[in-house]
Amino acid sequence: MNRLSLSALTCLILATTVRAELPTDQHAGSAMTAAAQNFVRALDSEARSRATMEFDDPRRLDWHNIPKPQRKGLQFKEMNEVQRKQCLSLLQAALSKSGYEKALRIMSLENNLHEGEKNLKDGALRDPERYFLTIFGKPNPKGEWGWSFEGHHLSLNFVIQDGQVTSDTPSFMGANPATVRIYVPGGPTTGTRTLAREEQLAFDLLDSLTEQQRTVAIIAQAAPADYRAAGKPQPPKYEQQGLPAADMTEDQKAKLWSLLTAYNENLSAELASARIAKIKTAGIDQVYFAWEGATKPGVGHYFRIQGPTFELEFVNVQTDPAGNVANHIHSVWRNPQGDFAIPSR
C-alpha cells in the first residue's frame, strides 16, 4: 500500500527543525545554494546521475501538475534519510513555514487519493513519496543554476543567478480533496482545507462587488475545465479581462491585496516581498479580476487575476474521489514576462 512510511514521516517531522539551522541573515538565493550543495554532496554517483542535469537541459522546462508516469529528477521515495533531510531543507529555503507545511499536506493527500481510488482499474499513481527533486547546473555562489521539486499537485521551479533568485515560476499548488471529508491514515484530518484562504478570499472579493461591477468581473457563466497552458513552458498570452482594480473601491482593493498576499505568503518572506514590490511598482490599478462559473462554493468556479508582472489562475470544478463536485483545486502563479527566467517573446 502506497502510504507514507514511518521512516519518511519521521523525516518530515524532524525536518521542521532544519529551518533553525539556516542563517537568519542569509538571502533566499544563498540559502537555496547552500542547501542544494549539501543535497548534491549527499548523493552517490547513481543518484547524482538522476538528480542533476545541465542548466540548459530541455527537461528543465518540462513541468506539470498531473500524476505523470515518468518525471525528471530523483524521487523522494528513493532518497536515504540524509538526502531527504537536505531535500526538505531546500524546500524550506524557498517557502515560508506555512507554505512548507502546505506543500507537505499536498503530498500527504496522495494517501486520500490512493484510498479513494483503490478500486479503479489502471488508476493513476498515488504515492505521497512520489515527488522529484532536480538540480540544474552547478549550485555555486557565482553563475546561474536552478532546481525544481515536483509531483502530483505540486510544482515549484526556481532559477538563481549569482546568489539571487531570478525566477520563481511556474509555481503550482493543488488539492484533492480540497476539503477533507473522510479521514485516511497518513492524510490530513477531517475538515482540512489545504487552499482555504486562497479560495475564500476570492469569494469575499466577489461578494463585495456591486451588481454593475459583477457584470464586468464575471466573464463566463460556466467555469473552464482547467487553467490555461497547463504544463506549457510559458504562460498564455491573452488580453486582460474582468474588472480592473482602478474601478474598485478602497475596501475592494484591500480585499484584492489580501488575496494576492495569501498566495505570496507561501513563499519565503524575501521572495514574497519581491513579488509584491513588482506588483506595486507596475501599479495596482493595472490588475484585473475575472470570474467564471458559479458564485458560491460547492459548484464549479474559476477566477483569474492578471497584472503586468503576474498571472494567477484558480479553478475548482473537478470531483474528489468520493464524487463530490468542485472539491479538487488547481492553482498556478506565472510570470507573463517569462517563466524559468526565459524572457517571453
What characteristics describe this protein?
2 domains, 13 strands, globular
Structure description:
The structure is a single chain. By secondary structure, this protein is of the alpha+beta class. It folds into 2 domains: 6-175, no CATH class; 196-341, no CATH class. It contains 9 helices and 13 strands. Strands 1, 2, 3, 4, 5, 6, 7, 8, 9, 10, 11, 12 and 13 form a 13-stranded mixed sheet that branches. A hairpin with a 2-residue loop joins β5 and β6 (164-167). α1 (6-15) crosses α4. The protein is globular and about 65 Å long. Residues 4-11 and 13-25 have low confidence and may be disordered.
Element layout with pairings:
Layout: H1 6-15, H2 28-41, H3 45-51, E1 52-53, E2 74-75, H4 81-94, H5 97-116, E3 132-136, E4 144-151, E5 154-161, E6 164-167, E7 171-175, H6 196-208, H7 211-217, E8 218-220, E9 243-244, H8 250-264, H9 269-282, E10 288-293, E11 301-307, E12 310-316, E13 329-334
Parallel strand pairs: 1-3, 8-10
Antiparallel strand pairs: 2-3, 3-4, 4-5, 5-6, 5-7, 7-13, 9-10, 10-11, 11-12, 12-13
Helix pairs in contact: 1-4, 2-4, 6-8
